[in-house]
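User: Just a sanity check before I run the rest of the batch. Below are the C-alpha cells for the first item. I only need the designed sequence back.
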C-alpha cells in the first residue's frame, strides 16, 4: 500500500510515543527488552497496529504483558498525542528479526561448507601435483 508523507509521519509519531511509554511509563518487567519496530495507523486513526520484536523465548510472556497493559498504553498515548481519537492498539509480533537471524546463520553455514570444500579441493590438487612429480622422476 502506498503511503503518503502524512501517513508516514503519523506512523512514526505513534511508534515513538509507544516506545517512550514502554521505556518510561510501564513498569512490567516482561516489557523491558521489547523493541517497537513499527506502527501502522489506520487512515481515520481509530486502529494502530504495533509491531514489536522480543526474545524468542519470551513471546508468550510479552504477548500477555501487552494484553494486560494495552489499556494503560492507550490512555497515556491519548494524553501525549493531539489526535481526536485514541486508537485501539493491536500488538503484532514482528518475526523479521528472527528470519534475518535464520538467514544469516544459513549463509554462515554455507560459507563454512564452501571453505571446507575449497580446502579439500586444494589438498587434492596438491596431492595430484605431488603424484605427477613423483611419476616424472
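Assistant: Here's the designed sequence for the first item:
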Amino acid at each position: 500500500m502506498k503511503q503518503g508523507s502524512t501517513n508516514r509521519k503519523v506512523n512514526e509519531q505513534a511508534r515513538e510515543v509507544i516506545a517512550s511509554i514502554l521505556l518510561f511509563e510501564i513498569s512490567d518487567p516482561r516489557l523491558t527488552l521489547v523493541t517497537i519496530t513499527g506502527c501502522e495507523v489506520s487512515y481515520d486513526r481509530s486502529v494502530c497496529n504495533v509491531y514489536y520484536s522480543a526474545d524468542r523465548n519470551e513471546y508468550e510472556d510479552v504477548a500477555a504483558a501487552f494484553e494486560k497493559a494495552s489499556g494503560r498504553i492507550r490512555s497515556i498515548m491519548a494524553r501525549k498525542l493531539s489526535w481526536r481519537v485514541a486508537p485501539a492498539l493491536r500488538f503484532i509480533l514482528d518475526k523479521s528479526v528472527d528470519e534475518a537471524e535464520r538467514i544469516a546463520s544459513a549463509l554462515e553455514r554455507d560459507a563454512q561448507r564452501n571453505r571446507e570444500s575449497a580446502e579439500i579441493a586444494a589438498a587434492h590438487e596438491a596431492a595430484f601435483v605431488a603424484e605427477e612429480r613423483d611419476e616424472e622422476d
